[in-house]
Write a structure and sequence with these properties.
The protein is α+β, with helices and mostly antiparallel strands. It contains 2 helices and 5 strands; from the N terminus they run αβββββα. Helices cover 14% and strands 20% of the residues. It starts with a helix and ends in a 37-residue tail after the last helix.
Length: 166
């Protein structure tokens, strides 16, 4: 009776189920490019965490792979990054130390900052002209209706009637 209930244990180590997650892409193997080390990070920068499987030191836990965080500490070889982690119904800000090989500058705020600059410029221009302007984002409104005209008579296409072949 007990033999059908007892099952083999399942390993859940620190790097379990990361065969594809930490593997490098096609023709991307080998040493880390020097440009990774030459990036300047400042406190408050947004960074994307992408673990590099070839560098074992300073590698974040698999949970943080693919997440975006904010730099709170800058060291010689590593950065302190704050990442939000959902635990049950709560969202907990976690502070982790990650080496620079596993980080890249995030582009998550580029569109927002570009919109802020454009809105500032548009606000100044509208103030000069004395016009009230709406700077809010709006969804694309439906296009106005229009009439479609054709020059030739339309061809109607109908299926052939079913024929029973013996």
């Amino acid at each position: 009776v007990w033999q059908c209930i007892i099952k083999m244990g399942r390993s859940e180590g620190y790097r379990s189920n990361t065969r594809d997650k930490f593997s490098k892409g096609f023709r991307k193997h080998g040493a880390v490019p020097l440009s990774k080390y030459l990036v300047t990070y400042k406190v408050g920068d947004y960074v994307d965490i992408k673990a590099d499987g070839s560098i074992h030191k300073g590698m974040p836990h698999k949970y943080y792979h693919g997440r975006t965080g904010r730099v709170w500490n800058v060291g010689k070889r590593a950065l302190g990054v704050t990442v939000n982690k959902r635990v049950g119904t709560r969202i907990i800000p976690k502070r982790i130390c990650v080496r620079v090989e596993h980080l890249s500058k995030s582009k998550c705020r580029e569109d927002f900052l570009k919109r802020v600059r454009d809105n500032g410029r548009r606000r100044v221009e509208a103030k000069k002209q004395g016009v009230k302007i709406d700077l809010k984002r709006s969804p694309g409104w439906p296009q106005a209706g229009r009439q479609v005209s054709i020059k030739k008579n339309p061809i109607t296409v109908t299926p052939k009637p079913y024929e029973w072949v013996m």
